[in-house]
Write a structure and sequence with these properties.
By secondary structure, the protein is mainly alpha-helical. Helix content is 51%, strand content 11%. The strands form three sheets. It has a three-stranded mixed β-sheet with strand order 6-5-7. The protein has a two-stranded antiparallel ribbon with strand order 1-2. A hairpin with a 2-residue loop joins strand 5 and strand 6. Helix 1 packs across helix 2, helix 6 packs across helix 9 and helix 9 runs antiparallel to helix 10. The mean pLDDT is 93.
Length: 269
């Protein structure tokens, strides 16, 4: 009937698909196909698309098109994204395609800030439905995981400033006796940081930023507990040196983890 079809049934699809409509207009499927050679021309050999979960049925048709074009379908990975519900005052924000009611990501970032938006989205897997609590994302309290992590970094910088004001010198780690770190909350921090490199390696291979988000939150929690339990200034000099070394390591790891998520690490809050 004047339309251009692709015989995707030859590659396992349940029916053939229209690529160009009878009126000459391309379908969405057409642009999906065109994306593959376009990406290759730009020098990429690994293609990753993020689609809504309702487009699950599109996977076999795009893989079929790749076969016809001479590409390996295994080089094209499609990750399915579940729905996100925005909550305000505990109630879902109503949105509708039909009525044109929508909240853009830019509008959300303008309201809650890019740090909160990035952390909240990175903290969940793509294939799990998400309730994005706008009020929580805007809170400046320990209830907000982003604030909780950033505040740990700011607290450490405050301790550095206090130590400097008190005339304490530290940083010669080869001469620092870290065996003085014997408290349980100190050792918990050491053990947590010991696994950081393995965690980053696994998160990168599996493209799982939620692991980094969770780790940063847990490390911040261990630090806040240490802060409540252990004094840094006003104790034996060797203990002060060791504890300053410990929180220096915590600060480095927190900043590194936040940078991976694209979240800032303010020194004052």
């Amino acid at each position: 009937d004047g339309a251009w079809w692709l015989a995707t049934t030859k590659n396992g699809d349940d029916k053939d698909r229209v690529v160009i409509r009878a009126n000459g207009e391309p379908t969405y499927f057409c642009s999906d196909i065109a994306y593959v050679p376009n990406k290759e021309k730009r020098g990429y050999n690994k293609l990753i698309d993020i689609w809504g979960a309702d487009h699950h049925g599109y996977i076999i048709r795009i893989h079929s098109a790749m076969k016809f074009l001479g590409y390996n379908p295994e080089d094209f990975e499609i990750m399915l994204l579940q729905m996100v519900t925005l909550l305000r005052d505990g109630q879902p924000v109503k949105m509708s395609k039909r009525t044109g009611q929508a909240v853009t990501l830019r509008e959300l970032m303008d309201e809650v800030g890019s740090d909160a938006a990035r952390y909240f989205f990175c903290s969940r897997t793509l294939d799990s439905q998400m309730d994005f609590d706008i009020d929580l994302a805007k809170k400046q309290s320990s209830d907000n995981p982003v604030y909780y992590i950033q505040y740990a970094n700011a607290r450490i910088h405050s301790l550095f400033a206090q130590a400097k004001e008190a005339g304490v010198k530290w940083g010669d780690w080869e001469k620092t006796d870290f065996t003085k770190l014997t408290e349980e909350c100190e050792l918990d921090l050491v053990k947590k940081m010991e696994n950081y490199h393995m965690l980053i390696d696994g998160a990168a291979k599996e493209r799982a930023p939620q692991r980094v988000a969770k780790y940063a939150y847990e490390l911040a929690g261990l630090f806040h507990h240490f802060y409540r339990e252990c004094r840094i200034l006003g104790v034996e000099e060797g203990v002060t040196q060791a504890r300053l070394g410990l929180i220096t390591a915590v600060q480095h790891v927190l900043v590194h983890a936040l940078s991976i998520l694209g979240v800032s690490a303010p020194e004052r809050m």
